[in-house]
Write a structure and sequence with these properties.
The chain has 174 residues and is an alpha/beta fold. The chain has one domain: Rossmann fold. It is built from 5 helices and 9 strands, in the order H-E-E-H-H-E-H-E-E-E-E-H-E-E. The two termini are 23 Å apart. The structure holds adenosine monophosphate.
């Protein structure tokens, strides 16, 4: 059987200088567009974190795809961590620096019981700012961070140093 990592290596597309000069953009859409590849990623993340989480949180936008599928596969609730200005009601916000530019992420409060263990999901771990901001939102909302699951880690950028102490699993590291 083809492993999740093998699927990613064979299907991933890489675009130099997108969306800015100097960025090698890793496009997972061809991976997600292959049913066997997508399923293998969800199964690998579900197995890695089995029994350690009560909910998943997907980071807009590609993290939503992973969170919806893994939430269903693991029969747990799904949280949407959204870009700034899109959520109604009482929201928590974190501003942070990206590999390119700055960003703001938000989370609605009161969606889960206090102390829920939340697994954070996204497509790419680059500088770690995005997952670190999300981990902070999860903590501030009264939950604990069960772990971080991503498909690709760009290890040169050392994103892991931003989330030290949080169990982190990546399907493929470059
Ligand atoms: P960071 O906060 O630097 O870890 O950036 C992670 C976020 O930016 C993820 O949500 C990715 O979707 C996106 N991202 C950053 N760098 C890249 C890259 N080289 N290729 C694709 N997506 C990236």
């Amino acid at each position: 059987m083809t492993s999740a990592a093998e699927h990613v290596h064979s299907l991933l597309a890489s675009y130099p200088d997108f969306p800015h000069e100097g960025i090698l953009f890793r496009d997972l859409n061809p991976v997600f567009a292959n049913a066997a590849a997508f399923t293998s990623i969800i199964d690998a993340l579900a197995a890695e974190f089995a029994g350690t989480f009560d909910a998943v949180a997907g980071i807009e936008a590609r993290g939503f795809l992973l969170a919806g599928a893994l939430g269903y596969a693991s029969d747990v609730p799904v949280l949407a961590v959204r870009k700034g200005g899109k959520l109604p009601g009482t929201v928590l916000a974190e501003e942070y620096a990206l590999e390119y530019g700055t960003a703001r992420l938000e989370l609605e409060v009161g969606q889960l019981p206090e102390g829920s263990r939340v697994l954070i999901l996204d497509d790419v771990l680059a500088t770690g700012g995005t997952v670190a901001a999300t981990a902070s939102l999860i903590s501030r909302a009264g939950y604990s961070v069960a772990g971080v699951g991503v498909v690709i880690e760009l290890s040169d950028l050392d994103g892991r140093s931003r989330i030290e102490g949080i169990p982190t699993h990546t399907i493929v590291s470059f």
